[in-house]
Structures
1.
Amino acid sequence: MITGVVLFSFVGKNKAAGGVTVNLAFNEASAQTGDIVTMDVSFSAFPSITRFGPIEIGYDGDSLDFASIEIGEALDGFALEYERPEGESLVRFSAVNEAEEEAILQGASDKEKASATEPTEKDVPVFSSESEVVVARLRFRVTDQARGEVKAWLGTISGLRDNALENVVAGSGTGASLIVQAMVSSDATLSALTVGSFDLEPAFDPGIFSYSVTVSKNTTDVAVNGVAYNMKSSVSVEGGSDLQIGLNTVLVKVVAEDGEAVNVYSIDIYRSDSLLVEGIQLTDNNGAVYDFAQLPETLTIPANFYQSTCMVDGKEVPCFRKDGVLSVLIYAAPQGSEADLYVYNQETDTMRLYEPGKMILRSSLILTVAEKPDLVLVPEGFTPTKITYGATEIDGYVSKDGSTKIAYLKSEDGTAKFYVIDSAEKDFYPYRAPSTHRNLFLYLFIICASIAVAEALIIGLLFYRRRIAYRRQVKPRRV
C-alpha cells in the first residue's frame, strides 16, 4: 500500500522590533503517513515573561491529526492550558507562572511598605533569555490523506506579560510546512506495551524487546496489549491466557507496513504457586511499612466478604472485598509485629487494624469506634450505654426518652463524629443536634413584646397622671 514521507520542513524566523517573534518549526526532517511528527512553538527571545497566550495555531486538518501539547522544557514552573474548538483545525493555548507572579506582586507590596530611605530589595529573579526559547511542543499524526505540502500557521498572538507586569510586543513569524510524498513504512516498533495493570520489568522502551512480570496463583489470564508506533503496522499477541504455574512466555509480533520489517517483543510471565508473591510491601499515608503475609487456614473472614485481589504498586496481592464498600481487608504485618487483618483504603492509603468488636459495617461504609476527645462534648441529654448493631456491641450514648442512640465513630477517610445507630433498620447516619433557631426567635419575640408592653404601660400611666392633674387644676371664675 502507498503511504507518504516528509521530505523536509521549513520555517522562516523574523524578530519583531522591541519585542519577540513567535515561530513554528517541525522537528523531523522526514516522516511517513501514520507517524507522529513534532512541531515546536518558539519565541525569538524570552525577556522575563511570566505569562503568554492565548496563542492560536491552525493546521491542515485533512493531513494532520492533533495528538498532544506540552510546555517547553525551559519553562519550569509554567502551567499550560489549551483548548481545541469543536469542528476547527485549531489549537489555542496559554501558559502562566503563577508562583513567579505572586512573588513579584508580594515584592511590590513589600517595597511600598518600606521607607523611602531604606534600600529596596532586588527584583524577583525570573527566567530570561536573549536567544530562542521553545515555549510549547505539539505532536500530530500524519494522516493517510497527507500529500504534497502540509502547513501549520499562527493565528492570534496575545497576552504576553513580563515581570514588570507590562505587556510584551509579539510578532508572527512564518508558519511551518511539510512536503509529503508516497512511501511505504518499514517501522516495526511499539509505542506502548501493557500487561493488564502489572508493572513490566524493566519499564517499557520501544528499543527493549525482553520483559518479565510476576503474578500470583489467582491470576490465570492477563490482557496483553501492544500499540504500534506506525498505525499501518500490524500487531499480534501469542499467549497470555491459561497461565500455568511457573514460566509462561508471551510473544508480541509487530510487522511493518512493507511486510518485511518484523520485531518480536517477549514477555516472561511467572505465575507463583501461592496467592501471594513474596517480598511485596505496602506503605500507608503515615509512612508505616507493612509486609504482606501468607493467609493462614484458620483466618476468619467477616460475613459477606469474599476473596479477591488488589493491585499495590503494580503487584497483585490477595484481599477480601464486600460489594459496595470502598475499603478492603488485607492480611499484613507492620514491620516488627505479627500479621493481622487490616482495613485498607486504596484511595487514601490509610491502614486500620480490623477490630470486629469496634467496627460496624454497612453496604457502603466501614466505621470504627473512636476515642472521643475531651474537647468534643456529648450532646445534651445523652448518657452512656451499650449499643447492639447486628452481632457487634459498641459503646455509645442514649437520649433521655430512649428514642435515639449515638456513637462516636471514625469513617474510612479518618474523620470522626457522632453517628445515629438504628439497630432495627441496621443503618447509621451522621447525628445532627436539634436546631435551636426556632427557640431563639421565640425568646427574642417574647423579650421584644415584653419591652413593647412595658413602654405602652409607661406611656399610658404618664397620660393618666396628666389628665388627673389637669382636672384638679383650679380654674378662675367669672363675676
Note: Helices lie at 98-113, 437-472.
2.
Amino acid sequence: MAILVMTPWRGVGSTLIFGPVVWLAASYLYSMWLITPDPFNLVTHLILVSLVGLVVVILITIFIVKVFTRLQRQRIADQVIHGA
C-alpha cells in the first residue's frame, strides 16, 4: 500500500518521510473501522500496525538502495570497460 502511494515521489528520503506517514494514516483508518470497546486495544493495534509498517518501509528502502548501488557500480564498470 505504501509503495503505491509513494510512487509519485522519487528518492530514498521521500520514502523514509512519506512511508511512515502513509502507514500511520492507513492503520488509523483501519483501526477506526474496528469496533473495540477498549480504547487501549485500539491504541495497541495502532502502534503495532505502525511499527510493522515502519519496519516494512525500512526494509524496502534498504532493498532499493542496494539495487541502485549495484546498478551504479555496473554502470561505472561498463564505462571503464568500454572507455566511455
Note: The chain has one domain: 16-82.
